[in-house]
Design goal:
The protein has 596 residues and is of the alpha/beta class. Among the domains are: 3-88, Gyrase A, domain 2 (2-Layer Sandwich); 164-269, no CATH class; 406-587, Isoleucyl-tRNA Synthetase, Domain 1, CATH 1.10.730.10. It has helices at 3-19, 49-52, 56-70, 90-101, 131-149, 165-177, 183-186, 190-214, 219-225, 227-240, 244-268, 278-295, 329-344, 358-370, 404-422, 430-450, 462-465, 473-492, 510-520, 522-532, 536-555, 564-587, and strands at 30-32, 41-44, 74-80, 83-88, 115-119, 153-160, 274-277, 299-300, 306-309, 317-321, 348-354, 379-384, 387-388, 458-459. Strand 11, helix 14 and strand 12 form a beta-alpha-beta unit. The longest helix is centred in the middle third of the chain and has 25 residues, at 190-214.
């Protein structure tokens, strides 16, 4: 029971006792007391005036007097106009603290029985993962962990876009320009090699267009008739027809990319419960296109293309199948949605995709609804803002992206330099130092990206992210390491402590009450973040808790406390802070070190 619920229930008893009226506790308004007034929580008295038939102050004073006399957990009350400010006793806070400190599953909400699938990453196999993918991946992972903390069964899935014209462009460039080069012969990571092919195709295409325009062709016609583009389009058609030579090259180059992706996912600490491939699902979408034609909700044009007219819904006409019979993105999404809901009886399907695809998912839900799928309303597009750099936006085809592998390496090197400068890890082995540098670098990267509300566009600054002060991952990691250091020193002194050292009559300072209140908010923040699909809520909660500890430790002796009972109480308190920090950061996929 939360403090608000406790006050509501006791206030309802007071109303019953004083006025003989039954009132549902849930109908009472209880809120945190404003800073300028004395109290922990405030009961809004105005709705009770119809029952009391008295003015607000008299009503508030009467309920407050009853609470002081009959509820030992309440120490004092004061009425300001229509607001009854209530202060809890130390006994209440100590009881609440003991409950949370004793709960190894603290923060984990009860099972809901719901199954939710979260699709994230969803890369194309024509380029390596980049900074934009990293925001997608980290957001998808942390949202999944957050929903698990909310009591749901969660499936983390990846949909690899492993076919289409963009893949064929990389293949054409490899055939024309790469002279049989492979990851093994070049020493280059496979996804990087294929990505370079994609950039080279774009350069070749631009050159061909320029030559055609110079020869007298209009720019519009040149863009359609460039030989490399024609070759890629022909290759896509051959792929869909099952041409063996094309399929073999496609499988080989995709294999290089998959191996590259797996290494990046491993470095980020990311796994999936299942991976789907567009090459295996696009035919499912074609079957639904035929169903829509049979139902009369889709239209086939003279060139063989299939469209859905959404103008009556305030949108436009949406292409579902090209004239040559090849699929488009939404064709595949229709098929995979049906497959997933049928296979797993999903309660919700979450797509983690950038906000440039808002229209796509609006159309997807609308078309699925027209096809008769009632679960179309259970599709949720977790739309997030783009990641930008000080120098502007990234463009894959021009090769101006921040490569994920390069960024991971840069973060590691920065973490290493910063940690060595502090000079506190000289007694660690090289292996221990390497593990610490990776932990800090990933903590910095993940936290910097996740702390921003998903809907907002963000500016990424690697140097700022790895600062050991301020609202950063390393600051929270350092706070945890600091607590663990205190607890180790206590152990070395032979000081044993546990939840039995939380005594009801322990007098608490205002700072200790504030920390217990903040710890009590953890399950509330998990529920709030889950409802909003925003791990940023948890990130910023962890920062507030870490900041509160540092202020408390600066002003309050722990190991220097001479009163043994108070010393042990404070050790339990900071141990519980460390526990909640670990749980919060685990939701974000961030590990906390024992030492820094």
């Amino acid at each position: 029971m939360t403090p608000e619920q406790f006050i509501s229930s006791k206030a309802a008893e007071a109303v019953k006792s004083i006025y003989g009226a039954d009132i549902e506790p849930s109908m009472l308004q209880v809120q945190v007391t404003r800073k300028e007034f004395e109290g922990d929580y405030t009961l809004v008295v105005f709705p009770l005036l119809k029952i009391s038939k008295k003015n607000p102050e008299v009503t508030g004073n009467g309920i407050g007097e009853w609470l002081r006399s009959n509820v030992p957990e309440i120490a004092s009350c004061n009425t300001v106009k229509g607001f009854l400010n209530i202060s809890f006793s130390s006994a209440y806070w100590n009881g609440l603290f003991r409950t949370m400190a004793s709960d190894s599953d603290y923060g984990q909400l009860p099972p809901t029985g719901k199954t939710i699938m979260v699709e994230f990453s969803s890369p194309n196999t024509n380029k390596p993962l980049h900074l934009g993918h990293i925001r997608n991946i980290l957001l998808g992972w942390s949202v999944s962990r957050l929903l698990e903390a909310n009591g749901h069964r969660v499936m983390k899935v990846n949909l690899v876009n492993d076919r289409g014209i963009h893949i064929c462009k990389s293949m054409i460039a490899w055939l024309k320009l790469w002279n049989g080069k492979t990851p093994e012969t070049s020493g280059q990571k496979g996804d990087h090699l294929v990505g370079d092919c994609y950039v080279a195709f774009n350069d070749l295409y631009k050159k061909e267009v320029g030559e055609l325009v110079s020869g007298g062709m209009s720019e519009e016609d040149a863009k359609k008739n460039a030989p490399s583009l024609k070759a890629a389009q022909d290759m896509l058609l051959k792929w869909e027809q099952g041409d063996r030579e094309v399929r073999d090259l496609w499988a080989k180059m995709n294999g290089w990319v998959y191996a590259g992706f797996d290494k990046t996912y491993e470095d980020l600490g990311i796994t999936f419960d299942r991976t789907y491939y567009e090459s295996q699902t696009y035919l499912l979408g074609k079957a639904l296109v035929q169903k829509g034609l049979d139902m009369g909700i889709f239209e086939k044009e003279a060139d063989g293309s299939v469209w859905c007219d959404l103008t009556s819904d305030g949108l436009d006409r949406k292409l579902l199948l090209r004239g040559d019979g090849t699929s488009v993105y939404i064709t595949q999404d229709l098929g995979t949605a049906e497959q997933r809901f049928e296979e797993y009886s999903l309660d919700e399907m979450i797509y983690v995709v950038g906000n440039e695809q808002n229209y796509h998912f609006q159309v997807l839900k609308l078309i699925l609804g027209k096809l008769g799928f009632k679960w179309s309303d259970d599709i949720y597009h977790l739309s997030y803002g783009m990641v930008e750099l000080p120098e502007g936006k990234m463009k894959s085809r021009e090769g101006t992206v921040v490569d994920a592998d390069d960024l991971i390496e840069k973060m590691y090197n920065t973490a290493r330099e910063t940690s060595l400068e502090l000079g506190k890890i000289g007694d660690m082995s090289e292996e221990e130092q390497d593990s610490l540098f990776r932990m800090i670098s990933m903590g910095a990267l993940k936290y910097f990206i996740i702390k921003v509300d998903p809907k907002k566009t963000m500016l990424f600054d690697p140097k700022e992210s790895i600062d050991f002060n301020g609202n950063t991952g390393p600051f929270i990691q350092y706070t945890h390491a600091r607590i663990r250091s205190i607890l180790r020193k206590a152990s070395e002194k032979g000081i044993a402590y546990g939840t039995d050292d939380i005594h009801p009559d322990t007098d608490l300072s205002a700072k200790e009450v504030r920390i217990i209140k903040l710890l009590d908010l953890f399950p509330v923040k998990i529920a709030e973040a889950g409802d909003a699909h925003s791990p940023a809520v948890i990130a910023n909660y962890a920062y507030e808790l870490a900041k509160e500890f540092n202020q408390y430790y600066h002003d309050t002796p722990v190991l220097r406390e001479e009163n043994e009972a108070l010393l042990k109480y404070r050790l339990v308190l900071i141990d519980t802070i460390a526990m909640v920090l670990r749980k919060a950061m685990d939701i974000l996929g961030i590990s906390l070190p024992e030492r820094m």
